[in-house]
Amino acid sequence: MNGYLVFALVFWLSAWGLNEWLVRRTFKDRTVRRVVNTAVPLIFGITLLVIWECLVHGFDIPSILLPAPSMIWARLTSSVPTLWADFQQTFLKSVLTGYALGCGLGFAVAILVDRSPFLQKGLLPIGNFVSALPMVGVAPIMVMWFGFDWQSKVAVVVIMTFFPMLVNTVQGLSAASHMERDLMRTYAASWWQTLVKLRLPAAWPFIFNALKINSTLALIGAIVAEFFGTPIVGMGFRISTEVGRSNVDMVWAEIAVAALAGSIFYGLVALAERWVTFWHPSVRGGQA
Amino acid sequence: MTAPFSVVSAKDLCLTFQTGDGPVHALSNVDLEVKKGDFVSFIGPSGCGKTTFLRVIADLEKHTSGTITVNGMTPENARKDRSYGYVFQAAALYPWRTIEKNIALPLEIMGFSKEEQKKRVEQTLELVNLTGFGKKFPWQLSGGMQQRASIARALAFDADLLLMDEPFGALDEIVRDHLNSELLKLWDRTDKTICFVTHSIPEAVYLSTKIVVMSPRPGRVTDIIESTLPRERPLEIRETPEFLAIAHRVREGLKAGHSYEE
Amino acid sequence: MTAPFSVVSAKDLCLTFQTGDGPVHALSNVDLEVKKGDFVSFIGPSGCGKTTFLRVIADLEKHTSGTITVNGMTPENARKDRSYGYVFQAAALYPWRTIEKNIALPLEIMGFSKEEQKKRVEQTLELVNLTGFGKKFPWQLSGGMQQRASIARALAFDADLLLMDEPFGALDEIVRDHLNSELLKLWDRTDKTICFVTHSIPEAVYLSTKIVVMSPRPGRVTDIIESTLPRERPLEIRETPEFLAIAHRVREGLKAGHSYEE
Amino acid sequence: MTSPSLLRDRILPILTVVFAILIVWHVFVVYLNAPFVRDQAARAGEEITFSQVVERTFAQERPVLPAPHQIFAELWDTTVNKAVTSKRSLVYHAWITLSTTLLGFVIGTVLGILLAVGIVHNRAMDRSLMPWVIASQTIPILAIAPMVIVVLNSVGISGILPKALISTYLSFFPIVVGMVKGLRSPDTILLDLMHTYHASPSQTFWKLRWPASMPYLFTSLKVAIAISLLGAIVAELPTGAVAGLGARLLSGSYYGQTIQIWAALFMAAGLAAVLVTLVGIAHSRVLARMGVKP
Amino acid sequence: AEKVTLQLKWVTQAQFAGYYVAKDKGFYEEEGLDVEIKPGGPDIAPPQVLAGGGADVIVDWMPSALATREKGVPLVNIAQPFKASGMMLTCLKETGITKPEDFKGKTLGVWFFGNEYPFLSWMAHLGIKTDGGADGVTVLKQGFNVDPLLQKQAACISTMTYNEYWQVIDAGIKAEDLVTFKYEDEGVATLEDGLYVLEDSLKDAAFKDKMVKFVRASMKGWKWAEENPDDAAEIVLENDASGAQTEVHQKRMMGEVAKLTAGSNGALDMADYERTVKTLLGGGSDPVITKEPVGAYTLDITNEALK
Ligand SMILES: Nc1ncnc2c1ncn2[C@@H]1O[C@H](COP(=O)(O)OP(=O)(O)OP(=O)(O)O)[C@@H](O)[C@H]1O
Ligand SMILES: Nc1ncnc2c1ncn2[C@@H]1O[C@H](COP(=O)(O)OP(=O)(O)OP(=O)(O)O)[C@@H](O)[C@H]1O
Ligand SMILES: Cc1ncc(C[n+]2csc(CCO)c2C)c(N)n1
Ligand SMILES: [Mg+2]
Ligand SMILES: [Mg+2]
């Protein structure tokens, strides 16, 4: 059994070395650089998987606790239709809708709060109040109000994503420097013009932070909300059911799908960020 | 037009900044009258309150006491009227906009049509000698180029009153001469009123109809010199005795106000 | 010390920026030799590559081709040696530090003792005439005061090579004269090497042992003038025919390099 | 300019908003609870008027949406009328959750900052770690939490720490995202200055990156502390939901005690508001010390 | 004292009164045992805790235990304190449902997490599809409470005789407005709360001995609870750390639970076992277990304990 562990260790060390070497070198050719840039996280990931596989075999961990990656892969490939249906239900319906609405709402309230000092003093404390409405308590209520289907999950996701967006937008809207604002004042620019032409652009780095955080939070929210009542489809439903059925490989297959979907989602947001905030030092410095 | 009408009129103007370690008297008892069509230069040692005074005119800073009117109104109303264009001491370009877009910014805000915007952007870019750099971003420009872009931005919308805070500080003599005479031409043609902060005595004398010499802490006006030079000013005027006399008076005023002796 | 040794030596230096709309040739085939104890002024139209050249010396920008050594090493090693103090064109003060703390920043980093820090901060504050403003934050200072603070910061740690990018651009004549002579004294006393960017021809001539005239796009060196003025320079030297002759040559060089004719 | 007044500038706006919310709330109480009231009446064969409906919607045992006064009665009863050490006291449960929250928050903040520092300073970490940090967040924590608890238990870690770790797991992410951005936010010229001094990475960090990241840090902290609380509550489920606000929520939900759920929700929300406000106060303190222009 | 950790299937309530009584009354102590009772919750899978070494013995339902056994975690039933099944479907009379055939086209609330097996078997017996088609039923994963019935989101919901049913009643719906289908009455009853351990650990004689003592004391607790239901409920309440349980509800629950444990002395009744296995095997196209389980129970422990 120790052969596994030794192999894991050796593999890990050599992969690490390889990665260090790769990132230290600068490649002239653009395509080579691109390949290297994707290879590095990939190598890291593969290393994790190999270590995982070896540990499971090496320590004889029961699959009900932690299945080996190979087992999860087998399950993944053999349950594509179920996984796809769950993905549609949870990701395409609950997560995306909830994310859009939650971020939209947080943004809108932040703008509203910014518009009116009165509301700022009245609404912001209330905003803090709903900052941590626990999904454990909220999800059953939402099921009661909005039914079992994805609509109630959307509601949970909205509640979860609202606050990060609110806080970040409020902070971001104050990111423009004094001189930049003074310039707008000299034009007697209206509040809207100042917002659109100065304060929003300056706020984007913060807003994108919220969009990034929310991209994963929304997924967690939607999945966990399904623990509290759902039609019999969905990633959260599958996970909770299959845990109870001791089909832990299926649970991890869902998790793998969630991780993949979440990472792609995050990646897209990060890409949009680079595109929108190209001027920010954090992006201009070469990395976002 | 009848008797020249007062564009900026300050009486007994004071401004004190409250800072962590006590108050800073940036302006004290400033009296000044700027008439329509005047070209007023402000000159004075670093930190004497020139920027602060311009900011009060522009309603970016509130005076502590005294009165000031701009175009006969409060600075606030004048600002809301979009009575002036302001060139800040630092360029203050928006990093997410190209130079072109930066210059178009006030035009967008004031609702100029797309073609008009394009035309004016091109004209002013040309004026400040930045043609070809319109598509660059601010951080891709040298310091002087950024400063010129910010001048272009203030000129683009053709305000009647220009507030310019050391607009040519980062420019070499040749460009500076060029822009000086362009500015004079513009002023002559359009009958603008210009308040101009500079550290160059020749520049002040060459450009102005009135030179305000300030002294530091608390910022006071120590001398106001009405220029006797004609409105038409070729570059050679800088060699005339009249010119040199005025320059001398300015230099003396400056020296008097200075805290340390050489 | 034996034969003056070469502090900056550039051969065939080129630098091209890759921008979204094509390459910008900021420096092309620059050859320059700066000896220990030289006071070299760079003068040239806005955007000609003066800042870029200083940045290459300081290892803040990588040249595209050619060679350059600083103190006989690569710019990188020279930087790691802390061979130079750099005054940026913009003040670049840290907004969360008081002026005092900003000046102490390089001292902290280079591990000066607390008392030594205090002493040097006070000295340099005094030198740039900012005594009493140590406890203020940068935004509470005027533009010129900020610039002086940044000069103080670069002087505080007493590097042998000073790279100064328009350090006196935002200062009035009197302060400027004062700082000019202080700088000359310092240079004379300590045998520093100074690379100095300026837009003022008299300033360049007054200060330098060597004047480098540059022309724009692509930034080339069009003239290198070895000053014949003595090392000892009272302010009155500026009226001498020798001085005026040099100034004239600089002006001609500048004009020649300029893209537009007046 | 008039002098600021606590009443006008703080209390009044909040009261107005709360009042507006209360009105909407009451409308919804009637709207959401009425169907059940009507059904009940129909089952009993009784004719009822609208005003009777309204009256009953405010006094339902298991309302879809409890009336505010019901929640406050419950809150009052479970906070003021119970000894704080009693397990029927909401204060007791809030304290249990709060202690988990704070522990999880502290660990999460430290971990998040350390990761951000690593990512900003080491290219290998940036390239390889970040994607997996992101992937880690897409794992639904509630799904693996029981396994985590079991595993931790088997290596002898039990009590508050496993719960806090789950809270950490959720809260470190906003910190990483915010701080990676924040630590990279200083302007090029400010970095160049450090470069000219040949400052060591740690000097650049402490003297430049760290202070420059403060707005990002505090914004992230606000989000993180809220998420910590969320995580602490979620973490109470796989640990047997024995005590804490999560346990209250769960058992309230399980036994259909809507009013108890709402009371616990209010408690959690109140806790969150206090914590976020505290972070906000710390933020303005730090800004003031950093001499930021007001 | 020897340590024993018991993982419950659900939160602290009278459903597990026997164990709390045995602990509280010192029955475990008398046997020289130090028993830790871990409450469960909505996402605690007792078999997982067992496999992970978090518990020595767990309370689980047989369908889930047998299914888990097929997945390769060798659970073994060592005692069966619950004789009868308390599960049922509770429907609103106004939906017009009077017999199982009426389910077609309706929406039913079902507990998942391993508790869905009895329902799925039943539907398979009835020949009703559960995929939501017109001739089948639409299944909802029911949350923890009876709201779907009250809100009329489902025609019927799963309830336990000792718990959720009474919540419906407490919510103000009269018993005569309800129709109930007990699994016991429909002939598809499966065994509920039993005690399970890992097969491997039974190879250890010391462990076996410990379990004998544990089962003996636990059954003593159960019998005490049956005789003193109100006192037992009080003991449960004392052990509920959430402070959310009410006396009325727990006392009533204890009364109902007593009816289910009444018929058992702890030993697994082979007839009940056979019936459970048959029900689960007969699950139509997708049976819960695919083959007759082997070694899924042992009578050794109870035989020894009840001597
Ligand atoms: N926001 C502020 N808070 C406190 N003090 C300030 C503030 N702004 C300016 N000051 C102080 O007011 C005085 C005048 O500043 P101002 O910027 O008007 O000078 P200036 O004449 O423009 O100088 P320069 O030529 O250097 O730009 C200075 O002493 C400065 O320290
Ligand atoms: N980061 C950059 N990216 C692209 N182009 C740049 C960049 N920095 C400078 N340039 C270009 O390089 C040229 C030289 O710039 P540089 O800043 O060296 O000029 P300069 O001589 O210092 O001018 P000034 O006197 O106005 O400060 C300019 O045309 C500028 O547009
Ligand atoms: C999500 C979820 N919902 C319901 C149960 C059901 N359950 C567990 S024990 C028990 C007896 C009744 O008290 C019941 C019904 C569960 N395990 N998980
Ligand atoms: Mg100024
Ligand atoms: Mg420059």
TrEMBL record, chain A:
It is a multi-pass membrane protein. The keyword Flavoprotein does not apply. Its main location: membrane. The keyword Transcription regulation does not apply. GO terms for cellular component: plasma membrane. Residues 104-276 form the ABC transmembrane type-1 domain. InterPro entries: MetI-like, MetI-like_sf. This is ABC transmembrane type-1 domain-containing protein. It comes from Ciceribacter selenitireducens ATCC BAA-1503.
From TrEMBL, chains B, C:
Residues 8-241 form the ABC transporter domain. The keyword Transport applies. GO terms for molecular function: ATP binding; ATP hydrolysis activity. It holds the Pfam family ABC_tran. Gene3D superfamilies: P-loop containing nucleotide triphosphate hydrolases. Keywords: ATP-binding, Nucleotide-binding, Transport. Belongs to the ABC transporter superfamily. PANTHER family: ALIPHATIC SULFONATES IMPORT ATP-BINDING PROTEIN SSUB, TAURINE IMPORT ATP-BINDING PROTEIN-RELATED. This is ABC transporter domain-containing protein. It comes from Ciceribacter selenitireducens ATCC BAA-1503.
Automatic annotation (TrEMBL), chain D:
Pfam families: BPD_transp_1. The keyword Transcription does not apply. The chain crosses the membrane at residues 12-32, 94-120, 132-152, 164-183, 216-239, 259-281. The keyword Transport applies. It is found in: Cell membrane. This is ABC transmembrane type-1 domain-containing protein. One of its GO terms (biological process) is transmembrane transport. Residues 94-283 form the ABC transmembrane type-1 domain. It comes from the Bacteria. GO terms for cellular component: plasma membrane. Belongs to the binding-protein-dependent transport system permease family. It is a multi-pass membrane protein. Keywords: Cell membrane, Membrane, Transmembrane, Transmembrane helix, Transport. PROSITE patterns: ABC_TM1 (PS50928). PANTHER family: ABC TRANSPORTER PERMEASE PROTEIN MJ0413-RELATED, ALKANE SULFONATE ABC TRANSPORTER-RELATED, MEMBRANE SUBUNIT.
